[in-house]
Every structure is written in structure tokens, then in C-alpha cells.
């Protein structure tokens, strides 16, 4: 975990925010907003923090929840918690007299490091799986926007200024990047029990942070307890969960310099290989086998691991004669491996599967190297393109990490082939 000291922020908006908290009896904490060289804005320890301390406690009245919003919008609607929270943020931003104004003013101005906001010149260079997920995220945001417009149209009593798609997108991304998941408070929220919590949402993420969090019924507050000690001046972190850097980039707009959860997804390459090597009938037969055994898709490699699912798919592909008599016998041998009764079908099948993996990794390595080279000169090729410098930095890091995992996997495959 990075131990770099931060520089406390003393701008007017933050001071107004702190005054708002104090005026409304928000519990004091040993956290102050600060700038850090490597992570940007985050929370810094203003004093030593011991393991086991509650680092922030957010009282119920400061929690923007499905329950609190139902008092404004009612509960007889089809909006999910995410849709409703985003709609409410838009309305609060329009209301200059809102009780929440000090908090709203501190929310991010833009989300230009998130792929959903990338210009086409960067979108074109996302990994295939991430590109598809970002496209779906764009569709989700717009469909949520339309759902909120339909809700407002059917509830003319709720007075709101015109809501533009970009306003709703900003609010949707605020919720997506800053919400917490509630426990023991509400069980009826549609589409996930989430909430916004001032102060708590300024804490940055690292996989090394150990915390306990949840709604404390006794004092009616959402609390985060750190199991990691901090010294005065250090950045205080929370842990968002076991996310790889592609997920971190899509959902939060940043990546970690060292992320033990990183992997490379090879589904597209595996299915391309199936199409190249199998007849249409043979492809259908083997697809049904994979689906029936629960091994269809989710084929990945990590720095120190070739997924069992991936090898299962390649071992099946390495079996000849999918449409010939006697293939059922071969599939029974394949099932023995899948069920853990034996390590391999036979050395020849294992060799073929590993050579297929080698071929796939070589293809992906070439793509990664091409992308790294292209991104190194993208500002020269697209001088008119406007994108956040961190967006480019993060995208280059993602491809470099993928290339590193592929290189390690190729070395492991070479070693395995040498033993057969």
C-alpha cells in the first residue's frame, strides 16, 4: 500500500462542505480531504489511526437511500435505486437552495477517464470484451434516462427543469462510482440496495485495504471500520472488492498499478479457433457438450494461472471426429478430466490443447503489441482528438498488463510442452 503523504485541500467548496457537516452534527473523524501525487484527491489521516477504529460514520439523515427518496417520489414506481438516485442528483444540482448543495458542489465535474466518456479515437483501442461492456453501459444509461423521463411525465406534480441526456449521464456516473451497498436497513429497493453517503465516498480504493462496513442499527449510521492502521499524513483507503483493472476502469475510471486480480479474457479467441477448426456440425456438438457440463465461456489466463475452464474447452476442441461413431467414448474421457478423476485425456490431446493455447496467446500478444505501439503515437495521429491524459495513460497500462500476462502464459505453456 502506498505510504506517500498528501497535501490537505483548503478550497472554499471543501470548507463549506465541512461547515455543513459540523452544523448538522456529523460525527468527527480523523480524515481530511487531500491531494496525492499518484491517486489525485483522496482522504488523509489527520492523526494516527489504529486497526479496529471506525474511520467514518454517516448518520441516517446524511444517507441518500431508496427509503429516504420514497418520501419525495413515492414508492409506487418502477424505477430502480440507481435510476432514482441519479434522477434525484440531477434535481439537486438544479436546486441552488438545496440542503445538499455543499455535497453536490463537491461531486466530480466530469468523468472523462471512464471509457463510457472516451472519444472514438480511444474507444477503438479498447480490448474487445471491454469495448462490448462499455457499449452496453452506454445503452443502460440512456435507457435509464428514458425511464426517468417517463416517470416524470406520469407524475406532473414533481416539478423539474428540462433534463438533458448529458445531465443524467453525469448523475448516473456519480451514483455508479460513489454508491455504497446497504445492509440491514432496506430490503425492498428495486435493482439493488444502494445509497450515497457524503464523506465516505471520498475514500479511494486499494486491494490491500482491510475493512468492515455496514449499517449500525444501534446508532442509525453507516460505518466503516479499518483493520489496517495508518499514520498521520498517510492516505486512508477502503476496498471496493476483488476487481481486475478492466472492471476498475469501466466502473470507476482508474486502474491500480499492481492489481492481483488482473486477467486476460480469451473467449473471442477460443470461439474463433473453434470456427476455424470445426465444421458447423462439429462446432454445435462441442458447444452443446460445453454448455451441458457448465464450461461454456469465461476462458481466462492470469499471471500465474491458466484457467481450468480454458483448458477444458481446448481439450475438447483437440478431440477429433465430433460427428463420427465412437466420439462419445472420447467425450467420456474428457468428462473424467473435467470431474477431476484424471489430469489429462492423454499426452497427445494435452499437447494439442497447449499448442492451441500457444497459438491463441501469440495472436493476442501481436494485438497487444500493435495497440501499445499505436497508443504511444496516438496524439500524433489524432492531433484534433480531445481526451483526458489519464484516460490514455490508463488504457496504455491495461494493454501493457495484458501483454505481461500473455508473455508469462507463453513461457508457462512452453515449459509444460517440454515435459510431455
From TrEMBL:
UniProt-recorded Gene Ontology molecular function terms: protein-lysine N-methyltransferase activity
Record Gene3D superfamilies: Rubisco LSMT, substrate-binding domain, set domain protein methyltransferase, domain 1
InterPro entries per UniProt: Rubisco_LSMT_subst-bd, Rubisco_LSMT_subst-bd_sf, SET_dom, SET_dom_sf, SETD3_SETD6_MTase, SETD4_SET
Keywords: Methyltransferase, S-adenosyl-L-methionine, Transferase
SET domain residues: 29-241
Pfam name, any one: Rubis-subs-bind
Protein name: SET domain-containing protein
Biological process terms in GO annotation: methylation
Amino acid at each position: 500500500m502506498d505510504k506517500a503523504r498528501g497535501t490537505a485541500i483548503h478550497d472554499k467548496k471543501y470548507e463549506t462542505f465541512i461547515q455543513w457537516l459540523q452544523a448538522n452534527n456529523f460525527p468527527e473523524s480523523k480524515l481530511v480531504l487531500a491531494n496525492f501525487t499518484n491517486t489525485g484527491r483522496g482522504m488523509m489521516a489527520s492523526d494516527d489511526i489504529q486497526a479496529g477504529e471506525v474511520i467514518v460514520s454517516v448518520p441516517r439523515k446524511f444517507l441518500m437511500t431508496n427509503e429516504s427518496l420514497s418520501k419525495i417520489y413515492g414508492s409506487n414506481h418502477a424505477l430502480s435505486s440507481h435510476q432514482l438516485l441519479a434522477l434525484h442528483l440531477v434535481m439537486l444540482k438544479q436546486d441552488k437552495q438545496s440542503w445538499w448543495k455543499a455535497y453536490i458542489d463537491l461531486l466530480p465535474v466530469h468523468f472523462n477517464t471512464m471509457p463510457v466518456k472516451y472519444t472514438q479515437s480511444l474507444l477503438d483501442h479498447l480490448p474487445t470484451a471491454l469495448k462490448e461492456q462499455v457499449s452496453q453501459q452506454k445503452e443502460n444509461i440512456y435507457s435509464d434516462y428514458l425511464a426517468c423521463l417517463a416517470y416524470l411525465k406520469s407524475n406532473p406534480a414533481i416539478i423539474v427543469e428540462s433534463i438533458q441526456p448529458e445531465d443524467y449521464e453525469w448523475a448516473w456516473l456519480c451514483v455508479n462510482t460513489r454508491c455504497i451497498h446497504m445492509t440491514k436497513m432496506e430490503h425492498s429497493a428495486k435493482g439493488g440496495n444502494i445509497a450515497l453517503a457524503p464523506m465516505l465516498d471520498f475514500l479511494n480504493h486499494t486491494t490491500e485495504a482491510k475493512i468492515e462496513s455496514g449499517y449500525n442499527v444501534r446508532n442509525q449510521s453507516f460505518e466503516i471500520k479499518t483493520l489496517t492502521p495508518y499514520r498521520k499524513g498517510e492516505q486512508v483507503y477502503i476496498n471496493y472488492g476483488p476487481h481486475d483493472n478492466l472492471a476498475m476502469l469501466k466502473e470507476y475510471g482508474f486502474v491500480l498499478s499492481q492489481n492481483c486480480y488482473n486477467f486476460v479474457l480469451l473467449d473471442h479467441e477460443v470461439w474463433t479457433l473453434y470456427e476455424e477448426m470445426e465444421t458447423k456440425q462439429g462446432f454445435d456438438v462441442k458447444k452443446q457438450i460445453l454448455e451441458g457440463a457448465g464450461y461454456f465461456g469465461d476462458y481466462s489466463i492470469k499471471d500465474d494461472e491458466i484457467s481450468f475452464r480454458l483448458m477444458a474447452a481446448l481439450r475438447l476442441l483437440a478431440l477429433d471426429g465430433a460427428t463420427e461413431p465412437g466420439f462419445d467414448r472420447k467425450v467420456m474421457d474428457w468428462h473424467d478430466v473435467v470431474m477431476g478423476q484424471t489430469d489429462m485425456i492423454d499426452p497427445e490431446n494435452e499437447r494439442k490443447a497447449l499448442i492451441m493455447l500457444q497459438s491463441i496467446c501469440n495472436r493476442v500478444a501481436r494485438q497487444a503489441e500493435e495497440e501499445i505501439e499505436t497508443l504511444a503515437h496516438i496524439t500524433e495521429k489524432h492531433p484534433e482528438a480531445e481526451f483526458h491524459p489519464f484516460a490514455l495513460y490508463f488504457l496504455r497500462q491495461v494493454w501493457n498488463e495484458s501483454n505481461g500476462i500473455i508473455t508469462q502464459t507463453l513461457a508457462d505453456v512452453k515449459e509444460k510442452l517440454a515435459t510431455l
